[in-house]
Amino acid sequence: MSERGRAGPWFWVRVGLVAFVxxxxxxxxxxxxxxxxxxxxxxxxxxxxxxxxxxxxEGPPRRPxxxxxxxxxxxxxxxREPEGLVLADGEDGGGVWHAVSSTEEGEEVEEVDEELExxxxxxxxxxxxxxxxxxxxxxxxAVIWVVQRTTGWDSLAGETRAKAVARFSAEASRIAEKxxxxxxxxxxxxxxxxxHVDGVAVVGGRLAILTPEIxxxxxxxxxxDEARGSRTGRALAVLAHEAxxxxxxxxxxxxxxxxxxxxxxxxxxxGLSADTARQLMRQQLTENALRGVGxxxxxxxxxxxxxxxxxxxxxxxxxx
Length: 320
Ligand SMILES: [Zn+2]
Prior knowledge:
With 320 residues, this protein is α+β, with helices and mostly antiparallel strands. It is 52% helix and 12% strand. The protein has 2 domains: 9-152, no CATH class; 156-298. The protein has helices at 9-26, 29-34, 37-58, 70-76, 125-150, 158-176, 212-224, 230-247, 252-269, 274-291, and strands at 84-89, 95-103, 106-115, 181-184, 193-195, 199-202, 207-210. A 4-stranded mixed β-sheet has the order 4-7-6-5. A hairpin with a 2-residue loop joins strand 2 and strand 3 (106-115). Bound molecules: zinc ion.
């Protein structure tokens, strides 16, 4: 905000951003579905960068007095305070305030020749302002993250969740080639299990637990016909991954490689087209390769490819 109380454009951008994000969270689902919130944040970030660059280019303060100067008053004959100030684009890319006074002839616009930007007291002011802008954006991203993590699965009716869990268990049982159970809960430690960020399973066991977020994404796909891009791909991969652990595979790389192959059919069974399911699993394969850098244990083995050691269908040249 302005150091002297007058709000600059960055202030209104921030107010607008906060208002929009609140509307996005609390408003109708159509808004959430049609406007990718990441894009909104990118635009806001772009504007903040624009303000910063403009402010830095403008340089140090040139005129400390912000009101119309005496010389202006004499020249333009302001005998009273103008009724309003209107912002117009200045020639040098900055803004210029125009004073609006109504007269008998109608509205009269006088150029006050006042700089739009409140002059920073030091050259650090634009940077400080930029940091505040980034802080606002970061805080809003955090709010959205928290909201998305606390709604969703837990907001579904118990009956609906039971139905969904039964479906997930049936699908996992197909992959595990035996009857297994899927639960949706905060994954907590339990004895003898392989623990992941998104799920837990006992190798060769009968029970796997998925996080509510993964379950929600699977539920949206299977029951609401709602695909959420790579999130949906991730959810499919996690369900298949834990199912392969239940089937008895311990090695993480092999488990993930099998999971991404099973995920293509799993995705189709839950409502995706064959092309989309395959594309999502390929995307998971790529992302996994990137994530795997630094954690050898989870790196997908090089044999995870068409005709490689972990190829489940040697007759099929598509992979996964
Ligand atoms: Zn695993």
